[in-house]
Design goal:
The chain is of the alpha+beta class and about 675 residues long.
């Protein structure tokens, strides 16, 4: 065994990737970098900063590979390929920039020497140069310089040429390479785990996948094939990470379980194979059950994909042809609705999953599952107050959609049953009943939280939003919709005033009540007989005393984020540094923790298996990366003037912080 040390420039490395001479082994993870991280890498190379080391593996034995996220197919190598163990994110990013990948359109400001992803603003400005136009195979440096010289820049012609030359020369920058010779697959896997644990921290699922790949080459390919299959059925969240967790939960069918994926690294090959068969058997039953009986066509509706796991374990341990008592099946669907609506897996999921999967060993699994939710006696109901302040991130989004679907709601433009997502995507499709643009400019000064409420959302197609709703108030277009379909969509029509922009707040009150009624009617269809309908009550019957609101303030490129929290009788307000938060979320995409200034003090933004957490006053604010990005987008969708942002900063919270989910932003809870 030996380690060869050498150097190779970026242009040569990209050529080797294109020719299939550098490939990704199966143990590698997927490509995760955001455009801002790619821009920072190119900037570092431009400034002459160290590019880091690449670790590769050379073997005479064929190794299982995975497709690189380059956007183009690799050629057939004329020599034995090298397998990339460390440096995938960097090399893939550079390949995408040098090959003009649409998601890597990095641009360079010739005046300020800044780098970022292409935007509408950079497209309009002659000061921004596409990196590909300088480093690509058809780059015309002379023509580009002539264009820049006539752009009225603050730098002279000689400096323009120097900066373009520096940018062009990044293709000659060297990477230091270490190539492993004579190592076996299992040993290389251990090296991969150790090396990558020092960069982007390996999640336990990464470790499990690497270990499984070493023991059973080709197994990761099986997982990816199964994932692709369910993606075609609308369940794109059933990815390889989900399947790894599902196998862990299915390793045994009795006795104490654990949801920790680390268990897979010590399980026998036979045990893993049996668990994998149970997972596939469970998915064969669960996805059709949810699609056909509950009308859940896509995993995009789920507040957490973890809610599928107990159902998969339940059905996976049964023979394929086994019949399930209709009352039990109905009860499982009721639990699914209640667990989703109450956000059972919105926070740390491991303990909840362990609890719920163990409950399946009970003689009455439905009762045991509901007992974990404390709903085995009183059941689950939704009140109008529960819907107050909720937006599309709320776990009630699925219940609202299903309430409409089970009521026979149709699309107002195209006709036919409503659809949760546009065909071929997992992006929810909906429209505001009262158009947001009109509400933002209304004299009543409606807030973003009000405008974006779930009670102002209707599940119709973009064609309906464009061709029927447009910028009109409901009063103007409501006559074009059948009365029974308005009822199916829970649109209030009894009081004409609520259909005008002036009556928007009254509209929200009326629609919350109608939505709650529709949701409760849906829940009643699946309520187990052992729950007395008369005893069912909402879990939020006490007075609200927990809330958190994020408000964006901005002026040009200057932005501020204000957090306002209520915890019991205590009120707290603090600013969050927007630039730091944005950079920290970029780092979180690579699994790295960061610090963010909150109320004048440094607060740790931590990444774990269940999401991203940041202490914000009395709360530990938790959510997924997508939820964080959406929360920021919502906060700044109707940003207030920066001059209106309160100057006074309250002191950092000194008491113990409680977990608060991003899905509950703007909502008061008991």
């Amino acid at each position: 065994m030996a380690v060869e040390r050498t150097n190779r420039d970026i242009k040569s490395l990209i050529g080797q990737i294109a020719d299939g001479e550098i490939m990704l082994p199966e143990i590698q993870r997927g490509y995760v970098w955001r455009a801002s991280q790619v821009a920072k890498l190119v900037e570092s190379l431009y400034l002459g900063y160290p590019a880091g080391t690449l670790l590769l593996w050379k073997t005479d034995e064929g190794a299982e590979t995975r497709t690189a996220a380059t956007g183009s197919s690799q050629g057939l190598p004329s020599v034995m390929p090298l397998y990339l163990l460390d440096g995938q994110q960097r090399l893939t990013s550079l390949y995408r920039v040098f090959k003009d990948h649409p998601a890597a359109q990095i641009v360079f400001n010739i005046e300020t020497e800044a780098f970022q992803n292409q935007s509408n603003a950079t497209l309009r400005s002659p000061k921004w140069v596409r990196v590909y136009d300088v480093v690509g195979p058809e780059a015309d440096s002379f023509t580009l310089q002539m264009q820049l010289r006539s752009a009225g820049l603050s730098i002279d012609n000689a400096e323009i040429g120097r900066r373009l030359k520096a940018l062009e020369s990044i293709s000659q920058r060297d990477f230091h390479m270490e190539v492993l010779h004579g190592f076996g697959y299992e040993e290389v896997t251990q090296i991969f785990v150790r090396v990558n644990s020092g960069g982007r921290p390996l999640k336990t699922t990464d470790l499990a996948m690497a270990t499984l790949s070493a023991r059973s080459p080709g197994f990761l390919g099986e997982l990816e094939k199964e994932s692709a299959r369910w993606a075609d059925h609308g369940y794109r969240a059933v990815d390889t990470n989900f399947l790894i967790k599902a196998i862990t939960l299915s390793l045994s069918i009795s006795g104490k379980r654990t949801s920790s994926v680390s268990r897979l690294t010590t399980a026998s090959r036979e045990s893993v194979a049996e668990g994998w068969e149970r997972v596939r058997r469970g998915l064969e039953r669960v996805v059709p059950l949810l699609s056909e009986q509950l009308l859940v066509p896509t995993s995009a509706l789920l507040s957490s994909v973890s809610v599928l796991h107990p159902l998969i374990v339940f059905y996976g341990r049964l023979p394929a042809s086994a019949k399930v008592d209709p009352e039990v099946e109905k009860g499982l669907l009721y639990w699914f609705l209640a667990a989703s609506g109450s956000n059972r897996y919105g926070g740390a999921t491991d303990s909840a999953l362990t609890q719920d999967v163990n409950a399946l060993d009970s003689d009455e699994p439905v009762r045991a599952l509901l007992a974990n939710l404390r709903l085995d006696e009183k059941g689950f109901r939704v009140s109008a107050r529960d819907l107050s302040g909720r937006n599309i991130q709320s776990p009630y989004i699925m219940l609202s959609y299903l309430a409409a679907a089970h009521s026979g709601a149709e699309d107002w433009w195209a006709g036919g049953p409503i659809s949760a997502v546009a065909e071929g995507t997992d992006k929810l499709q909906y429209s505001s009943l009262h158009p947001a643009g009109q509400l933002r400019n209304h004299p009543n000064k409606y807030s973003s939280a009000e405008i974006n409420e779930l009670a102002n959302i209707v599940f119709v197609s973009p064609q309906t939003a464009k061709n029927m709703i447009g910028n009109r108030s409901p009063a103007e277009y409501i006559g074009e919709v059948q009365a029974d379909d308005l009822a199916a969509h829970a649109v209030p029509t009894a009081d004409p005033r609520v259909l005008e922009f002036d009556g928007f707040r009254e509209f929200l009150v009326a629609r919350r009540a109608l939505l709650a009624g529709r949701i409760n009617a849906l829940l009643e269809r699946f309520r187990p007989s052992f729950i007395d309908a008369g005893d069912a009550s909402s879990a939020s019957s006490e007075a609200p005393r927990r809330s958190l609101v994020l408000t964006g303030y901005g002026a040009g490129s200057r932005t501020m984020l204000l957090a306002e929290a209520q915890a019991g009788t205590q009120h707290w307000v603090g600013r969050i540094d927007t630039a730091e938060l944005d950079a920290a979320l970029d780092a979180a995409a690579s699994g790295l923790d960061s610090d963010v200034t909150v109320a004048g003090e440094s607060a740790p933004l931590a990444v774990d298996e269940d999401g991203i957490t940041l202490p914000v006053g009395p709360f530990r604010l938790r959510g997924t990366a997508d939820q964080w990005r959406l929360a920021l987008k919502e906060a700044f969708s109707d940003a207030l003037p920066a001059a209106d942002c309160p100057e006074q900063e309250l002191q950092a919270w000194v008491g113990e912080a409680e977990e608060f989910l991003l899905t509950d932003l703007g909502v008061q809870r008991p």
